[in-house]
Amino acid sequence: MDFIYVLVSFVVIGFFVFFILLPRYGPHYVSKLFCPICKRGFNFHWVPGATLTSLRYGNRRRLKCPYCGQVNTFDIASTRVSKSKAAQKT
Ligand SMILES: [Zn+2]
Fold it and tell me: Is residue 25 part of a domain?
């Protein structure tokens, strides 16, 4: 029973780190996206390969524009502007 308890704890910790800590504090990319409807630009932070949607759509993401609220498909790979939080500071 002890072995199962340790195994379950590891899975829970791994899940927590992968889905909560990594997207927030780990290395991520920033893309400068341009809404085709309201013609306004905005920054989008994303983690490569961290979500199921990125596997389904590849380099394209379906996002809601923060200004007009319309959902569009954006190419986040070609619009990438910085590699990580650290790189953005300099
Ligand atoms: Zn828009």
Answer: yes
Measured in Å, residue 34 CA sits from the centre of ligand 1 at: 8
21-80: pLDDT as tens digits? 766 666 778 889 999 999 999 998 887 665 555 566 677 888 899 999 999 998 887 888
CA atoms within 13 A on the CB side of 28: 20
Q: Confirm whether 90 is domain-assigned.
A: no
CB-proximal residues (5 Å) to ion ligand 1: 35, 37-38, 65, 67-68
Q: What's CA 20's distance to the chain center, in Å? A: 11
Strand segments, DSSP code E, in the chain are: 29-34, 41-46, 60-64, 71-75, 80-82
pTM: 0.54
Per the domain annotation, does 89 fall within a domain? no
Any domain includes 57: yes
